[in-house]
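Batch manifest line 240
LIGAND: magnesium ion
JOB: complex structure
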Amino acid sequence: MTDEAKEQIRPVPPDVREDLFVVIAAFNEVASIEPVAREVRAMFPNVVVVDDGSTDGTLDVARRSAKYVLRHVINRGQGAALQTGIEFALRHGARFILTFDADGQHRVEDIPAMLEPIWRGECEITLGSRFLGKAVNIPSTRRNLLRLAVLFTKIVNRVKLTDAHNGLRAFSRRAAETIHITMDRMAHASELIDQIRLSGLPFREVPVEIRYTVYSLAKGQSSRGALRIVWQYLLGRVFQ
Ligand SMILES: Nc1nc2c(ncn2[C@@H]2O[C@H](COP(=O)(O)OP(=O)(O)OP(=O)(O)O)[C@@H](O)[C@H]2O)c(=O)[nH]1
Ligand SMILES: [Mg+2]
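JOB STATUS: finished
ARTIFACT:
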């Protein structure tokens, strides 16, 4: 992080910093988990990596860089990994919980702005929005898919958002206790939005920057993956 970037970051009260748990779900992220976890930890000590049954050595590398490392013995999906991390954080007394991707797409500098409306008591949940902020190097197919996801959220979840599937989210303790992710894989993002609406918990979108690097693009979701997410969500709604 440059000195200029550091100066622009909003201050975080020390008690908020100490009582924040940052949950990073990681599946086969051996190349990125160490720098990501270290960078977060330099600002926020309670970093929880949930290794989601990786087979590439993510676990060992995470143990070098995160304060807490949890492991699923089999790959269960991002939704399940986040729920595991959130429950761990609650058990350890977290007052604030933030989810952060392991693939280097998020910026640590965005965390203070995600937390501020919550610690000021203005809302219970914040959702990062790359379309209020920046989506650096986003391919047009990905942009269009995400626009469709926004439309889907408006029609099916009946919530108006500008960005529906952003992994950067923050919760108050009360919100984290209320919300319970049951959709193990990527459809949890839509499930979460349903739960926010049903719970009536106040939320806000916060502009953030998402970086599409060669690495994250190679690992991220495909167009077919998007269809699978819709299918998993619909199945989850029918059988829940
Ligand atoms: N794909 C995938 N990611 C997982 C899983 N479990 C945990 N994760 C983590 O979830 C985070 C987000 O995964 P991505 O596949 O990049 O999803 P995304 O960021 O919503 O999609 P893109 O915008 O395409 O990058 C990463 O930190 C992954 O390591 C899993 O089973 N599959
Ligand atoms: Mg990603």
